[in-house]
Each structure stands twice: as structure tokens, then as C-alpha cells.
Task: structure prediction
Amino acid sequence: MNLRNVILYILVGAGVLLLARILIGIIFGIIGVAIALITLISVLFAVGVMGYGSYRLFSMLRGTSSSSATASSQSHQAPESEDSISTLKEQYARGELSEREFERRLEYELDDSSESKGRNTREVSREFE
Result:
């Protein structure tokens, strides 16, 4: 074996080591970017969940709701309550109910109505006086 072959093998070995190091760097770089993206997505998800939770909490504390289902259910409950109050008034006017029974049923309906509308019972009862 001559000196020329030894130098050639050393250069080839160094080249292979350099190429291996570059490939390993690229692989770990891709893994690092993937981990960074996963972390970013996780943080954005957590911030979004906390933001939505805060929004719902403040909406609940203010007494408003962003849900259209809640609004539609409240709008469906109000006419039923008003119809039952009208029925009670008619029964009382015809003499079918005593004054005590009328007041008891009216109070029950007003309490139910005020809960569904989110209003105070006193405000509702003033409307019917």
C-alpha cells in the first residue's frame, strides 16, 4: 500500500463523516421544526380555550348569552308564559279562581317567566298591575 492510497482513503473517510454529519444535522433540524410547530399549535389551542372560557364566563356573569339556542329557547318560553297569564286572568274574571288562588298561580307564572327572561320578578309584576 502506498502513500497515495492511504491519503485517498483518509479523504474518502473524512468526506463520508462530513456527509453523515450534514445528514444528521438536517434530520435533527426537521425534527426540531416539527417539535416547534407542535408546541406552537398546542400553545395557540390553550390560549384559544382560555380565551373562549373567559368570554363565556364574562357573558354568564353579565347575564347575556352568545348562544343562539339559549336566545331561541327564551323567546319560545316568553309567549307560553304570557298565554298562561292571560288564561289565569280570564279564569279569574269568570270567577273560576279565587283571589288567593289567582295570586298564587300568577306569582308562580311570574317567577317562571322572570327566570326564563332573566328579568326581576318585580319588573314583570308591575307590567300586569
